[in-house]
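User: Hi! Is it possible to get a structure for several chains at once, not just one? Here's what I have:
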Amino acid sequence: MSLLSVRNISVSFGGIHALSDISFDVPEGVVWGLIGPNGAGKTTLVNILSGLIRPTAGSIAFDGHEDGPWSMSRAVEIGIARTFQQTRAFNGLTVRENLRVAAVAGAGHALDLGIARRLGLEDSLDRVAGELPYALLRRLGVALALSLKPRLILLDEPAVGLTADEIDRMGALIRSMTADGVTVLLIEHNVRFLMSIADRVSVLDRGRLLFEGTPAECQRNPQVIDVYLGRGGEDA
Amino acid sequence: MLELLPQQLANGLALGSTYALVAMGLTLIFGVLLIPNFAHGELYMLGGFLTYAGVTAGLDFWLAAVLATVLVMGLGVLVDRITFKPLEQASGLSLMISALAMSIVLQQIATITWGTEPRTIPNPVPGILRTPFASLTYHKLLIIAVMVLGAVGLWAILNRTRLGLSIRAVSQNRDAALLMGIEMWKVRAATFAIGAAFGALAGALLGAAFPIYPTMGVIPVLKALVVLVLGGIGSIPGAILGGLLLGVAEVLIAGYISSELQDIGAFVILVAMLLVRPQGLFGRAQIER
Amino acid sequence: MTRKHLLAAAVAAAIAGQAGAAETVRIGELHPITGPASYYGLPESQAIRLAAEQINAAGGLDIGGETRMIEIVSGDTQASPTGGVAALRKLMADGVQIIIGPLSSGVAPALTPIIASADVVQIVDGSIAEGLTDGRRMFRNQATVGDYNLALERLAKARGYDSVAIMTDRFHAGFMESQDDLTAVFSEQGNAVVAEEYYKLGDTDFSGQLTTIAGADPDALIVRGYPSEGALITRQVRDLGYEGQIVWEMVSPPSTVMKNIDAATMEGVLNAIPPTTEDYLNLGNPRAIAMAEAYEATYGSVPGELAALSFDALHIVAAAIEKAGSIEPADIAGAMATLTAAEVPALINTYGAQEDGRLFDETGQVSLPGAVSVWQGEGWVPLTDLAAD
Amino acid sequence: MHGLTRPLLVSLVVLAAALAAVPLLNEYVLYVAMLAALFAILAVSFDVLLGFTGYLSLAHGALFGVGAYCCAYLTARAEVSFWLALPASALLTAVIGALVAVLAFRTRDLYFAVLTLGIGLVGHQLFLVASGITGGIGGFVGIPSMPEIALFGSPSQQKLVVALIGVWITYLAATAFVRSPLGVACQAVREDHVLAQALGIRIAVARLSAFVFGAFFAGAAGALFATFSNFVAPESFAVLAAGFQVVVLVVVGGMGTLWGPILGAVLLTALPESLRVASTYSLLAYGALLLAFIIFAPRGIAGFLIDGARRLRSARAGREPSA
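Assistant: Yes, the chains can be modeled jointly so their relative placement is included. Here is the combined structure:
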């Protein structure tokens, strides 16, 4: 049985179909990759799954909850957390306060500094988030989501703007999440990075699901190569 | 009572034109720069006082009004430099507080300079236009005319000049405008100067019929804020329509319901508009989830 | 000019205070010396200082055979209730037990409970709100708003207006409180009230209300409030084609009126209030003229409309102190309650005597009936056929 | 709640010091100090909304008025005991605050400020128009004084003592609130409300409770103001009077700290009183001060003091003060 089940999701903004009739199933414990060119609707899909926007049609089921789509607070309540493409943190608060907000006000449990250690933030706890270097800020974004102790985490381009070393570190982190029983839905532009860590991949193009399969199958698929890989190269 | 309706509507349009004239400057600055310039009321006040000073010094009213407007345009740019420029990185909250502080400072400077006793500029256009349906003073007609001309002029500047193009670009997307090489300081200065010009012009014209005193800008700027919300913050047509709407509503409430409820009526309309259509008549959507 | 004089007076007072604190009688005055209401408050404060200087120059007060000088201590109410209470507390903390003021009807009721429970005597020289006096510790030499209305009511009756409209400043506490009584009297007299409209201080556009009033076309339009708005209303209702009689009920110095309306439009407008300083000057009152000349010589400006009241208030206090032969508030209050106008020869205002000849009635209130003046040329002229009895 | 011991102890010491000073003050200073204390209650509770939740409400002066008129009506007309009227006024103001909040929180930023400005103006006008209850422009006359507390002092001293205890309670309640999960959620709303939502924070509940918290204490401060003054008039509750003043107190004192607004209230009440002679210039100074603070010291006096203490500490530890 799948953890997340997306059925016939469509959404349009002012007459333009951003997503049409998307359906897919994510089993528990995998890293599920989602790629597609700019404007394909990847972030829109994450926004719908996390409750930030409401789809025009379709249903979502997650972990026995059949009532999706849902509000953001409901999504967190049933175990879905997300990060943002342009990393968001509470810029005026320290790292410790950030984590405390997520733990205490968000998830309703005590502050757990284990997450900070795991993400290499333990030396920066008293620094104000707005003054963190970029790489640390991105890790803080992930740490905030993890603080909610989610069952599914939606990562919106976590590797963007990172150095090669940082990307490797992020990859290891994402793999370790699945080891802890967290399922990952990973949106990435960096195809090489995505292919190296994803168990399965979906390809979106102009609001439609073009392909679904293993990374190896994906790289061989002529349609995918045509609309995406062929167009911009790996790191488009 | 109904036979008075044409006259009441004329009253409302005249009153609404004064609101629109004040609101246009405010909405321009907010629309382009996202700055809530509460000190706009004090620019209006200074427009009145400077015109008064010019007329007392023996200048012709129109010359005095033009000189006052030019001076206040410079002052508008100065207000921006002192009040808002240092807060470019700060939140909207800081901008609002800073603006409120600046309006107190300007009020007190005027109090120290001119005192609190109200003054008036002699009306440059005495007389009344009487028609079978309604009569309006030439002064009110002048305000309506200036409001319309001002709106047309503003439209022309925004749509027919290079500067206007830059201003519009910044109001659409500041970052993209900067990338395209638009010089922000020019746009800022121009926007504040034009906005201040509207305030000053309104002050000069209304000062010719109503008393001029240091706190005279408080009520018009409050009304202008209502107008902004009605019309949609940042929208020029919204400021005009919102102004006229508020003017007509106030006059009709005073004329047909109760003059005790005139102010309450205006703000009830404000609250109702924010509830039904928070972005106003012409505003871009900004709805809280 | 004015500020310099104030400063000089303050310095003089401070020196006097140090030199002979025991010899002076400290009298506190509470008026809005700063802020928008200072336009009325400052002349009141200065008239009190002027009266005190004149009394001191003439040898001071004779208190049971002992001579003492008057020392004026100023408190700035800033025309706000909390500002007024703070100023009163400050005066009381400085040991002042005699208070003249306040001006604002918004301030006076805030002071009343404090004065009622303290060892202080008060004489109100400005506020016209009802019920500020008790005849024991609190007195007033200004008219009440009821007195204001008397002249108006007599005028409406005498002229036989069949219909009247009323425009009232709803930020004016005194006028708002007495509105119902006024309309009741009008209805009784057969002056039908066809419209009651309101505006507020600082309004500039009255077209909504005035269109309704002009449409009802009453014999008289009564405007109650302050002169800036009064002038604008008069101008705007004439612009709307109203041709009936306009009657004001407001203290309205011609200089302020003329700033907002031209003389031709004002011509023939009536004003029904107790006589002001200006009226007494016009009537050739010698004490008013002497006061105005001294005031101008000292402060370089003409005295305000209410200055005569403040000037009188100090003289009433001075007379009461001499009569009591004591500076104890209870004794002064006792003497004040029995004071007759004849015992205070310096009075400018012509107060109506009580039945037994006293100045104040049982509640500590003077009788100061209103009179009607008409605007002619560039100022008010008393209407003799409707003069106060 | 374990972190509350220190603020409790420190505030108790400050309260004790303030109370010890009460017998030394004359009537005038007692009155000014009482006003400062009431404004401190207003400012601290307002800061929960402005400083901790990031919403500029200009309706706070009107809520202060609701509390005042409510207490006036209950004690003068309904003859309810003051000690009952005080919590009742606070509760009623909280309920009205909740209604206002439900309306106002449909917007934010400038829209929120303008909407609350409108609500504040309507409130002020209602105090004028509803003259049957409020006494209209003439004000509400004859509000009974607080019952005398037999144990100590003159009535004026008792008023100040009650007001000071009021400040202390408000401070503690605000401290407890901002440290509670709800208060933490408010700070998340202030920083980034989309992220807050993404973290599952119910921002509607958080900011509503901040507003209601502020309204409750504004109502209590209003009730105290009414009984202490024996007279209230609409003018005191105008947007440009109390509504704006409370913003100034919080900004100058230090947004986002709870003791900063108390400092702000004390200084800005004492300063104009000590400058009574030159009040035109004092208003100019007031505006200039606010402008200077928001531009050069947006964290207010509290910010100065915190930085100063930090420098002192690091200097004592023998290190260079950090930038």
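Chain B is about 70% helix and 0% strand. Residues 285-289 of chain B have pLDDT under 50 and may be disordered.

User: Great, thank you!
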